[in-house]
Write a structure and sequence with these properties.
12 helices, 6-stranded antiparallel β-sheet
């Protein structure tokens, strides 16, 4: 990591520590002097850990390294927020019952052992489903085909490989991509259309997200312009867009900004479901729950992560990664500040301090 950026990350950690120990007013004054700006971070990129960066802060775009502001991105698990929004729309239309067993809609997908898991618990990661099985890759054997891997295949393999006793549904929050695969299949079962078609009809076309799509499982291409991404020296720019409703979408910073703004302003959901976008279950967080700090759950029914800023305020958003891309969007609930970021990690180190620094810097004040 570049020495100045390492110092930036350390300054952020120190600011968080100060904020925990001091009254809010004093903490704000103390952190203001040490917290980096987005430009501070960009000024010291690229480096050995991050080859390129694209940051859209309150609608203004800045980049570092060989990436343009209109670049296409593989958004990874940011896809989950789109998936949850489609499901909540179906709930609003009374085509899905939020608290009904998920097996009511997809009995052949979930084993009977999970007959108490509800749609809500899939949305807020309290289902207790097992950890996902490893996703097959092109080096798994001769004749491997991208299109041969289906959501059902991954679910079957994950249930078959499950060990131990799962937590009771609704008892704890454990971030789990299997939830999104089941939700995507529920959407298809209830609507009679492909998940990609419903995504297009319900979100992409109404919002004019002309640079956003869910590619087919056998389409590894990404439109231009885009970053050329390398991990451990290997070009991974064109790869399988799998995993589908869990993390397969392609978009741009401008489109993600538009989607985030529309979601927060209630343009996609009626009031009852809009409240669920920010509703976090009152359960404990599993010990290895991604991104949750301490014992409290931090993911909402809408698929958003609640992130505490150095001044004590909360931001809401989602992270997402694919090899060569670490992306995300976050905003204050009132949209006073918002950020969409995309980093291109090289695999040479941990870029989490960069992400945290970018989000906190962009949403400060």
């Amino acid at each position: 990591m570049h020495m100045r950026l390492a110092a930036t990350a350390l300054s952020l950690a120190a600011a968080l520590t100060v904020g925990a120990a001091l009254p809010a007013a004093a903490a704000t004054a103390a952190t203001a002097a040490t917290a980096p700006t987005v430009q501070d971070i960009l000024d010291h990129l690229p480096d050995d850990v991050v080859a390129g960066a694209l940051i859209r802060q309150d609608g203004v775009v800045a980049t570092a390294g060989p990436v343009t502001g209109d670049a296409y991105l593989r958004i990874g698990s940011v896809t989950k927020v789109f998936t949850n929004t489609v499901v909540l729309q179906l709930v609003a239309e009374h085509r899905l019952d939020l608290d009904a067993p998920a097996r009511r809609y997809v009995p052949r997908v979930l084993p009977r052992a999970y007959d108490r898991v509800t749609v809500r618990q899939l949305l807020d990661h309290t289902s207790g489903l097992p950890k996902p099985a490893p996703t097959p890759g092109p080096n798994d054997g001769p004749g491997w085909q991208l299109e041969s891997v289906t959501p059902e295949d991954l679910l079957r393999a994950s249930f078959a490989g499950a060990t131990g006793t799962p937590p009771a549904p609704g008892s704890e929050q454990q971030y789990n991509g299997l939830n999104s695969f089941v939700l995507g299949l529920i959407v298809e079962k209830v609507t009679g259309h492909s998940f990609a078609d419903e995504l297009e009809r319900r979100i992409i076309r109404p919002l004019g997200l002309s640079h956003t799509a869910l590619p087919a499982a056998d389409d590894p291409a990404i439109p231009s312009p885009h970053a050329e991404v390398y991990v451990d020296g290997q070009d991974v720019t064109e790869q399988s867009p799998y995993p589908w409703a869990e993390g397969g979408m392609i978009s741009t910073a401008a489109d993600l900004d538009r989607f985030l703004t529309a979601l927060f302003r209630g343009r996609l959901l009626p009031p009852a479901q809009q409240r669920l976008v920010f509703a976090i279950p009152h359960v404990k967080s599993a010990a290895d729950n991604t991104n949750c700090v301490g014992e409290r759950a931090c993911y909402s029914v809408g698929g958003l992560l609640r992130h505490q800023l150095p001044d004590g305020a909360y931001a809401w958003g989602k992270t997402g990664s694919r090899p060569g891309w670490d992306n995300g969007f976050f905003a204050t609930r009132d949209l006073r500040h918002r950020v969409v970021y995309s980093l291109n990690p090289t695999g040479a180190g941990n870029d989490l301090p960069y992400i945290t620094a970018v989000v906190d810097a962009a949403l400060a004040g």
